[in-house]
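Students often ask why inverse folding is considered easier than folding. One informal answer: many sequences map to the same fold, so there is more than one right answer. In these notes we will look at a single instance of the problem. The structure comes first.
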């Protein structure tokens, strides 16, 4: 159980660090260029999606979907809260300066990038037939094929 929460915490921290790096780059490197700031934000969402796709691919081989999906959802939820509420404070901004639409748009984009990343990773894994369920079914078929057929006696 400890390892389960440790992996959730490490994933949430990694996703938050990606956001902090993007915020620092935007704040100190591209303070007045809105187009460049948008490109950095897009790159941040792509990196978050790629991290989640890689983890969905990795965890999907080892664990059932119900287990790793819950862990990933918890990590994304914690990272989202940190990104929206704590991230702006680290670069000297108030998270509630803008209107509610800005806050909800940021959360929506974050969830969209996270869902897309997980979906790409899991669908790739399933397409290759390397997901946990496919591997279990393959092992079951191999075990059943290895047993000799017993004739029925009357």
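Output (designed amino acids):
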């Amino acid at each position: 159980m400890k390892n389960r929460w440790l992996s959730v915490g490490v994933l949430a921290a990694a996703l938050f660090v990606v956001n902090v790096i993007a915020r620092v780059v935007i704040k100190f490197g591209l303070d007045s260029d809105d187009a460049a700031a948008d490109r950095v934000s897009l790159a941040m969402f792509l990196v978050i999606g790629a991290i989640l796709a890689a983890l969905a691919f990795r965890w999907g081989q080892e664990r059932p979907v119900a287990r790793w999906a819950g862990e990933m959802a918890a990590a994304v939820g914690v990272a989202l809260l940190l990104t929206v509420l704590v991230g702006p404070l680290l670069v000297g901004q108030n998270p509630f300066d803008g209107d509610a639409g800005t806050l909800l748009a940021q959360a929506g984009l974050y969830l969209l990038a996270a869902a897309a990343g997980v979906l790409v990773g899991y669908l790739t894994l399933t397409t290759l037939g390397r997901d946990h369920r496919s591997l279990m079914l393959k092992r079951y078929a191999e075990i059943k094929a290895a047993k000799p057929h017993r004739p029925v006696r009357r």
